[in-house]
Amino acid sequence: MENHHSRYYLTFLLPVLALVVVVLNVSNAQPLVPALFIFGDSVVDVGNNNQLHTIVKANFPPYGRDFKNHRSTGRFCNGKLASDFTAENLGFTSYPPPYLNLRVKGNNLLNGANFASAASGYYDFTAKLWDAIPLSQQLEHYKECQNILVEVAGQSNASSIISGAIHLVSAGNSDFIQNYYINPLLNKVYTADQFSDILIQHYANFIQACFPHISTLQHNLYALGARRIGVTTLPPMGCVPAAITLFGSDSNVCVARLNTDALNFNMKLNSTSESLLRNLPGLKLVILDIYQPLYELVTKPSENGFFEARKACCGTGLVETAILCNKDSIGTCANASEYVFWDGFHPSESANKVLADDLIAAGISLIS
């Protein structure tokens, strides 16, 4: 019995002690890692889509109305993203800049960069449907970024920055909601389970193998020197306001089928990641669960300090996102902090803060 209690207290205390270390380091104005590099979709895009010929943009009001200087940056939110809060939690005083929007790269890349593109995913054709940047192309940008880092900091320093940096990956949501569920060329050919398998193969390729249409093995995160990688799970897709509106058959509750697909994908993501960990020396790979914390906010909003979880703040709150969420959208709420979702697909700044606090606790091994 004593051993059982000892194990229990160790299990409880170690994350607490680690968090104390985090707080102490951050309070000393010392970032916990040299840089933060971000890949993925609209959940983490900070403006890379601004210059693209795509309708999937957020660089206009009311997006960003609660951000610094009330500025629309391209973030799909009223304010900060979970990745912004994560950067703050890691001790950075600025956020990784959108790689494509940087006029001058050089020194601006020393603390990391953001390569994410709204409507991108593990499946390259998802991005191509929406004229976004596929993950394979985000890797090309990262390789280019590394070459610039070598020029600015020297080979040795650049290698240290890359191996010590956290690489955050957030994808998969657009593959389902903005492709599979609305694309008969996919959903009539593959079951959701089969499509999950395809996505997981692309995920594994992104971390360690090579994309079939790229001739060199150097185009994956591990081969490019990444050793600390955090990957977010799929959220409860069936609880997103637009998903309930589009796929919920006039119901106001989460769409069980979509949530089941997300949970199934997340199980495969976990098992594949465990396999990658076993086979790649020196790799720290952590799966960061977004599903459960967001599900808690949606199903128990008042217990978590929120007023509304079915409708988003922007417009009717039922479906609007990107160009449909604009300054003329009728019904946009006055106080987004009371809402779990800002637009039909994306969490509000307040919800992002809750998610980010969970992320830092879950990802503690990446900084220890």
TrEMBL record:
Signal sequence, start to end: 1-29
Transmembrane segments annotated in the record for this chain: none
GO MF assignments: hydrolase activity, acting on ester bonds
Entry keywords, A to Z: Signal
Coiled coil: none
PANTHER family reported in the protein's UniProt record: GDSL ESTERASE/LIPASE EXL3, GDSL-LIKE LIPASE_ACYLHYDROLASE FAMILY PROTEIN, EXPRESSED
Record family assignment: Belongs to the 'GDSL' lipolytic enzyme family.
Protein name per its UniProtKB record: GDSL esterase/lipase
